[in-house]
């Protein structure tokens, strides 16, 4: 039995697989987010307790011993811990927006672009650079008390194994890692005013770190590997490794990834290059801030249940009777395929005749247009896989295929956990059949007429977005 652990933003999951990649059991626990005034934080003890709980429940279901386990989780944010791996303060989430003024300043003075040209990382308020700089200005005592500024999965690995602070090249990619040398760029640290905090950056393990579990959640001695984080783990779990092939993750974050061997640091600074376990291979990532979270907000606001979505999508035609949604709901604005910290969602074309179905379809279409924008910017030329919670809606998948104008290789199940196991197996030399583990569960073809309609709608979306970005800067 192989176990993958995925420490998500709102849900902690663990999945057990046999040697062929068949899912044997899945356990999950929700974890909370605290949101107030643009600040988005998580309780580290709650997150870690959820990890132990799902592992205890999972391993109790399947009597076979765990051969090895792989760990993945949400990226970005700042998870400050002391020398024992205990929290110094609440974790600042990747969704946090408190550092937007710093990003605004760096955008204006050229620091933002300089960092991108050196690392391929377009900073946004919820990534470690701005957050650490904000903490330095407002909570320096928290940094004084910390032994390390970790990413989410690194905190969990630290606690599960007792190993020293460590991260991997994927998490370190935003924003301090030089993708050519696969080590921290000290000039970037200096540019962000953090040279005297350089010691808080966890050592980069390349390849990913391994250590035996201490006995919480996993039996003592169980082999555990740390990383990569959730976006590249999903790419591995979906079989997206050939240059030009892409993955769309329809989750809380709408993430578009394209495998590439071309490191191009020119063009508009946006997204990031995620270093992978293979030197010279990257994932060009355009992780838009809000995916299913945008639809969740609309559903909760209109009183619609998730199980009603497919029926509502069938109740209104493409174009949603003129209702349009720019789905930029995150408190920290947008980070891909452009950075606009002050951008906010817009809902237009609504009248007293508009229905809940119109609002739901318009939101799904808006998310689809945002995905198309991201995939184009990331350089998609090959096949496209799709995974995430959104795949549970067949109607939404058909809509997405139409909006994107291409077939979707749907990969269901716990794709991030699956990728974490494959990464762990590679690290430990376990011979797993990656092709069998990543086989799609379905292929959704676009309808030619609807795809043509949405191609025009996409151009309209870009026009509305240009105007919205101008208003955000005014």
TrEMBL record:
<keyword id="KW-0418">Kinase</keyword>
<feature type="domain" description="Carbohydrate kinase FGGY C-terminal">
    <location>
        <begin position="270"/>
        <end position="425"/>
    </location>
</feature>
<dbReference type="InterPro" id="IPR018485">
    <property type="entry name" value="FGGY_C"/>
</dbReference>
<dbReference type="Pfam" id="PF00370">
    <property type="entry name" value="FGGY_N"/>
</dbReference>
<dbReference type="GO" id="GO:0016301">
    <property type="term" value="F:kinase activity"/>
</dbReference>
<dbReference type="Pfam" id="PF02782">
    <property type="entry name" value="FGGY_C"/>
</dbReference>
<comment type="similarity">
    <text>Belongs to the FGGY kinase family.</text>
</comment>
<feature type="domain" description="Carbohydrate kinase FGGY N-terminal">
    <location>
        <begin position="1"/>
        <end position="205"/>
    </location>
</feature>
<protein>
    <submittedName>
        <fullName>FGGY family carbohydrate kinase</fullName>
    </submittedName>
</protein>
<dbReference type="InterPro" id="IPR018484">
    <property type="entry name" value="FGGY_N"/>
</dbReference>
<dbReference type="InterPro" id="IPR000577">
    <property type="entry name" value="Carb_kinase_FGGY"/>
</dbReference>
<dbReference type="InterPro" id="IPR050406">
    <property type="entry name" value="FGGY_Carb_Kinase"/>
</dbReference>
<dbReference type="InterPro" id="IPR043129">
    <property type="entry name" value="ATPase_NBD"/>
</dbReference>
<keyword id="KW-0808">Transferase</keyword>
